[in-house]
Amino acid sequence: MTSHEIDYRIYGEEMQYVEIELDPQEGVVAEAGSFMMMDDGIKMETIFGDGSQKDTGFLGKILGAGKRILTGESLFMTAFYNDLVGKRNVSFASPYPGKIIPIDLTTFGGKFICQKDAFLCAAKGVSVGIEFSKKLGRGLFGGEGFIMQKLEGDGMAFVHAGGTMAKKELAAGETLRVDTGCIVGFDQTVDYDIEFVGGIKNTVFGGEGLFFAKLQGPGTVFVQSLPFSRLAGRVLASAPRVGGKDKGEGSILGGLGDLLDGDNRF
Q1: Contact status, residue 174 vs residue 216, Cβ threshold 8 Å
Q2: Does residue 167 carry a pLDDT above 90?
């Protein structure tokens, strides 16, 4: 194996965290901001690139870091190593309510494709790169652009799903239609495309967007019930307007009260 063999345990229900057990000289890489706690003896190091152990030279590291910028992530990742004798633990937390999904990359043929903000942490040696869409429709209408993240290697990786997670096993030719934001990740054998909802009433009044993600098997698909974009949208919609009067959620008139008061500022 090129990746470190790590043991883990997931705690919690709605706001989970994963505890990684590191043997001496073992390591784990994580996105900035996911760290929760660690035992004494864990060494933290900021690394430049995609987190793999491949010695690609300075130019290779520059390219790896550039790919991370395209997915909206930081140039740097953080690595945690056990420098002492004996086992040590380091933990990483979910960014918002949901489930942490352990992904054994060996069971997915060494590659797993996921949303660009789904990755949480992985064994040292796992490469965190980008997956370019080969179909124009995905880039123009998919909501995630041409780019999704790909996790490659032979170790363990952990991704986060918002809300409740659904795991679907698709047979060859079996199709699943999903809201584009609700995709967490899928097997590399799954064919992914964008499909127009269709119908004037659905398009104008449906409220579910103009496009679905069409996933066709064979392969495994992970779906989330609460994408962060949906959560953020609801929070933003409920936030008091700048300079406006907060009527409170219990107000009978709600937003209409602002109009009656003549307060139409935004």
Answers
A1: yes
A2: yes
CATH number for the domain spanning 35: value is 3.60.160.10
Assess if residue 184 is contained within a domain. yes
- Annotate 24-87 with DSSP letters as a single string: TT-EEEE-TT-EEEE-TTEEEEEEESSS-----HHHHHHHHHHHHHHTT--SEEEEEEE-SSS-
**Residue 132 β-bridge partners:** 147
Q: Which long-range contacts (CB under 8 A, 24 or more apart) does 52-61 make?
A: 52/125, 52/126, 52/127, 52/128, 52/152, 52/153, 53/2, 53/3, 53/124, 53/125, 54/127
Whether 256 is in a domain gets the answer no
Q: Could you identify the residue written with the tokens 């520059």? A: 62
Question: What's the structural domain count of the chain?
Answer: 1
Whose CA is closest to 166, among 225, 97, 96? 225
Q: Is residue 254 part of a domain?
A: no
The structure tokens listed for 61 are 């590291």
Domain that holds residue 116: 7-236
**Residue 2 falls within a domain, yes or no?**
no
pLDDT in tens, 114-165: 987 889 999 998 988 888 665 545 555 545 445 688 899 999 999 999 999 9
